[in-house]
Design brief:
Shape: globular
Radius of gyration: 21 Å
Largest sheet: 8 strands, mixed
Order of helices and strands: HEEEHHEHEHEHHHHHHEHEHH
Helix content: 40-55%
CATH class: Alpha Beta
Structural class: alpha/beta
Number of strands: 8
CATH topology: Rossmann fold
Number of domains: 1
CATH architecture: 3-Layer(aba) Sandwich
Strand order of the largest sheet: 1-2-4-3-5-6-7-8
């Protein structure tokens, strides 16, 4: 009797596991069909990087090239986050290049490295170089700001200015969230993440976006444009969890080195950002690096590039102007 019960339970678990994997695969396939790659694929150090080059603006006179501008998205994001409002607002005056960070979107993940931030920056830098973009302005939002800072520290001569939007820059006192503790663990990789991919409802996804955008509302059309299903693929969830789990250690290593940065830096940060706190990050960076010009957006949360796009565009314009003139350190 006991043996039959055990066998029966095993069969039920096997069927449930099979159903979970089938549902996860089906949802991943549906997401990729609904939101196919927007750009091209480049091989950098043996890794496939998905990158979108919007090209030279048609509004400029022939033979007058626009500044190169690279946009790097945040955690759980991909190219489509930047193509919703920010890239369209910039493309008339800049050659906008948007990249899926390694492991997210359609870019290939990277193996364990001492610094994922530096490794991501190196791969993005290599992809951008293949497009002939020399010394671009680099904009990083949230986690992408950490990648942008790593780029500036590792290869300062390969970019002309930084624009940091709600960017992570300094160590924080709170521990890693339970969600990322679980999803970055071996058990989470093999059990929890497939369950998320297979079963998480759309209502839960919309709720998570509401928290990210707070206190502003999620803009109309953003959910449909962004395609959260791409983020909920198992490979993307695993890469994102690992990146978040390692982030604090990497930021602790980078922060003491910021004083060496002399590039023009425009920082835009919302005063109501509870994801990446203004005082802990942007204001501390402004104290550490004389070349930082900080713009604080009163009452704005973590997504200025979506809800205060004009302010971010203005910061890019200032960075472009400063990149072509001598840096005046305070």
């Amino acid at each position: 009797m006991v043996a039959k019960t055990v066998i029966g339970a095993g069969l039920v678990l096997a069927l449930w596991a099979g159903l979970t994997l089938w549902r996860a695969h089906a949802r991943e396939t549906a997401a990729m069909q609904a939101y196919p790659p927007l750009g091209q694929f480049l091989s950098v150090d043996g890794r496939q990087i998905h990158i979108l080059d919007l090209g030279q603006p048609t509004s400029l006179p022939p033979g007058e090239p626009a500044p190169d501008l690279v946009l790097i998205h945040g955690a759980s994001g991909h190219i489509r986050d930047m193509t919703f409002r920010l890239a369209p607002a910039l493309r008339d005056h800049y050659r906008v290049i948007i990249v899926d960070r390694p492991g997210l979107g359609y870019s290939e993940s990277i193996p364990h490295a001492e610094s994922l931030l530096s490794q991501q920056a190196a791969l993005i830098r290599g992809a951008v170089a293949q497009l002939g973009a020399a010394r671009p302005i680099v904009l990083g939002q949230s986690y992408g700001g950490g990648v942008a800072l790593a780029w500036a520290l590792d290869a300062p001569d390969s970019l002309s200015a930084l624009v940091l939007v709600g960017a992570v820059s300094h160590p924080w006192p709170t521990p890693l969230s339970t969600f990322y503790k679980v999803t970055s663990s071996p058990l989470g990789w093999h059990l929890v993440i497939p369950l998320i991919t297979a079963y998480v409802p759309e209502l839960t996804i919309r709720g998570a976006l509401t928290e990210v955008f707070a206190p502003q509302d999620v803009p109309d059309g953003y959910f449909e444009h962004f395609g959260p299903g791409l983020t909920l693929r198992r490979a993307a969830l695993r890469a994102n969890a690992r990146q978040r789990a390692d982030l604090l250690t990497e930021i602790k290593s980078m922060a003491p080195c910021y004083a060496a940065i002399t590039l023009p830096i425009e920082a835009v940060h919302g005063s109501a950002d509870t994801t990446v706190g203004l005082d802990l990050h942007a204001r501390q960076l402004a104290r550490d690096v004389p070349s930082v010009n900080l713009t604080v957006l009163d009452g704005i949360g973590h997504m200025p590039h979506q809800v205060a796009t004009d302010a971010v565009v203005a910061a890019v314009d200032r960075a472009a102007t400063r990149a072509t003139t001598p840096i005046n350190l305070r």
